[in-house]
């Protein structure tokens, strides 16, 4: 989880931020303004300054905020002069918007506010539908408006072209005043309160914000069109209210509460994606009639309130369907205000001391939390001067009381600081003259600010539970033990809490520094906002201690030790230990080995999926026998004992033959599969299931460790390793053999051994220098730390360092289907031959909201079901897509011929695991590419080139990436005219990218000295095809198109790639890197990766085996050589598939249905395998037939989804004859490129289905 910040305003109007990863309040960079209120999100913060004007603070980012302005130039053909600007009176404006209804001359388009700047001048867009137009960018039509084409025809009477100009938001990391272009007569009154939320309103696009404000006259205003590309919004609109509003609060979703001056609360109903302002108000009475509601704060599914007597209340039963809730519950403590942030975490400001408190124990199951805990983090300015003060106090230990008395306060020691906030008052023998003795009777304790204990165990500090006066630094640390405190003037401690007598100090300011607070005073807070602060339930915060780690004197001492000294010290100790071990073992070398061979056995009970009919789960006994030979090598055998017709039998698997152990995605079983080369070819693994998740993890870890020991594979992967991702998100690596790319007799892919790494990713990209990046399902970027293991792999199977917590979020999708009825319209009652009314995308599997579960038991729901408006083809305002029948081409508008409709529902689930990955914040990514480097380029001294595509389509270049700093330092934005989806950088710095419209682009002049290049060159796509992914090697360029076919049974939105055609770019040379044309290679491809040796690996579907078709198979292109860069055939490796248990099919329909489950349902016909299936199907011993799978044959969820071969530059050495043949053929390579493979005998290509 990346660090987020908590925003707060003190009594002097200064704005501070506190990071979840830090322990100091940092003053806002722009300190010229004084503020009253702030309301924050993760990307920005809105505030009301003392001049009652609204300001917005947009946090800086490597990705700029850009907005594209468009204007269209329209012309009509004239018989006298051809096309000209003289139009007919009924025509549109000569310069207009896309609709032609608004006049839009180029000189009339101005910047909306002084906070924007132009990036460049106006220029013509020469791209039309992914294809380049003729010079000038004109598109032609018969008349206005009509369908435009890029080619001029004989009847083209009108034409138009689009002019583009980008503007960039420049006021970042500073408070920008919100401009107002409204009518002066209707301008809002000065504002008194403000709230920002709604960025996660049901089905709301990411980046959309709802900004609500309250004026001094009690009116409510809404800011229109606030989003990430437009952080200022456009205008204020008045929202009618039944009374005068005093304060307002907007939650991240659709909750909006407000308080009236009379003490009631207003709740906004009808807030939705299509109507973010809501429709009506409902009134909620205060908890008590004597004291009305003074303050309210809304979260995702909670509402907290503070009444006029400063009591804190929690609203029960609040959710999107019932925003008013059911009843009030009184909580412990007295507060001036409370604020609900992300994950429904709660903060508050104390009623008397104005200290800040955090509500601990808030979880999804216990939204009210358990206790208040004070935040006693000091300010950044305090830390800057604490070093000198602390050194004076430490010096006082040796030089007398004069030095010690120069300090002003003492901070808790590292052992006591963490518990001070929950420590009761000192012994009751302290005199009544103490400052707090009159306020708190001795023996009483408080569990919250100004309150008493409400439940057992809730005893924490608050402003009412402060002890007697603390000791001063001049006192010895033992003067308060068994002695009474002398009378003296009270000296307030930081945050109003006791300070144990200690020689360590924090928060000390030198004399002469102008601060509104004394050195011993904590900041007095006036307002806070946690809307941009994400605190996980398991997170460990540093907010509750004044010092972390060592005392200041020890910290000062530790800072004097440099990393170089530490490294030398560790090296010396390691050498001494090594020498000692040699000396102690030298005297025992002549003894014979006591035990020459040892055997270790692990037994247990599992379930096994039968290899024969009837296919079902069978209870079996398993035994893992591991033995050690004379040479110390270990080998293992797994025995599976089962009973057939009362006869005991067994099968065994040699673990040195196992190629991969794969967890199987199942909602009902804890399953995993074992593959050997033979079972890989058959697509028929050994499937086992454990009773509990822990048992499965234990067996997986044990078997993985045994397999690695048998193959002597240990430690972190090598820099040349091949990385891959399964459809489940598991990460696997394989150490490449030089024989993989051997020109003669290459190693088959099914012989490769894959071992699992901890973590969970969707995309992985590796480099030959050990730099590995990954992208999760939630678009979060991760960088490899160099460890191994994590997750279920602990102990010997995992490294002891570089393992971190990792989380991922993905969405599950189901479809609601309806058919039109002449009487009632669209209803959920379909024809007998229709699909299920609640189904997956294919309609073959019934999927209801109640019956759909997370992908596996490791996932947990984190949201409710909501309509997904981002499905391909578009939707109407309610999310419906229309078609003439099931299945057909869907569109987002209704016509007279549309008799069916559907809409997609999505729900998020979350997985928390661990692995050798660190998050790269804060930009979310959709694709990443690292330059593939061969073995001979490691010492060039240049940083590693890394390009990426953000989730919004921005092209980025990462700076500062190296072996020592794989995460890099910052992003460099590369300007584009449209959003992009894929990018790839080749070994010679050739950068190719794919735009969202399917067009390809080449980036020119990219080099180590110019990492971002200079301009984009548009490359025509294959005829009538839209590209979706590109991969560049040393000299080869491969791309995948979108042919509109999802993998069998895949629901849209599962993030599994479309099956596409594989294309090779011909004519690519160093002098002409754009190439000349595209040539088709194969189909049924999901992903392609080209390595530094131009080797080609793909993830393919419909690869045939002896038992079934695979879903995602790792395939290797064979015969790639300089004179045959496309290769000659395919060799396939691991791919999880095959028939499996019906209960293992996920409810959202991610598995393949090979035959109808109900006679009257639509059943797809099994077609003969084509493309890659045709190329590889000849390796199976028997053809695929549905009858061989039974009447309920359903494949397991699994398969591979992503592969990165770009780190593998290993190749078998050539023979002398091959070198001679290469010289005679005039083989050449690019400068610095690796040697190519000599020519191999030509093979006849099998037919490929297009």
From TrEMBL:
One of its GO terms (biological process) is autophagy. Residues 444-455, 1215-1228 have a biased composition (Polar residues). Residues 1-17 form the signal peptide. Pfam families: Hyd_WA, Pex24p. GO terms for cellular component: autophagosome membrane; cytoplasmic vesicle; lysosomal membrane. GO terms for molecular function: lipid binding. Interacts with ATG5; the interaction is direct. Interacts with WIPI2. Interacts with the ATG5-ATG12 conjugate, the interaction is however mutually exclusive with ATG16, since it does not interact with ATG12-ATG5-ATG16 complex. This is Tectonin beta-propeller repeat-containing protein 1. PANTHER family: DYSFERLIN-RELATED, TECTONIN BETA-PROPELLER REPEAT-CONTAINING PROTEIN 1. Keywords: Autophagy, Cytoplasmic vesicle, Lipid-binding, Lysosome, Membrane, Repeat, Signal. Residues 600-710 form the PH domain. Belongs to the TECPR1 family. It is found in: Cytoplasmic vesicle, Autophagosome membrane; Lysosome membrane. Tethering factor involved in autophagy. Involved in autophagosome maturation by promoting the autophagosome fusion with lysosomes: acts by associating with both the ATG5-ATG12 conjugate and phosphatidylinositol-3-phosphate (PtdIns(3)P) present at the surface of autophagosomes. Also involved in selective autophagy against bacterial pathogens, by being required for phagophore/preautophagosomal structure biogenesis and maturation. Residues 405-478, 1209-1250 are annotated as: Disordered. Residues 64-125, 137-170, 807-868, 879-912 form the Peroxin/Ferlin domain.
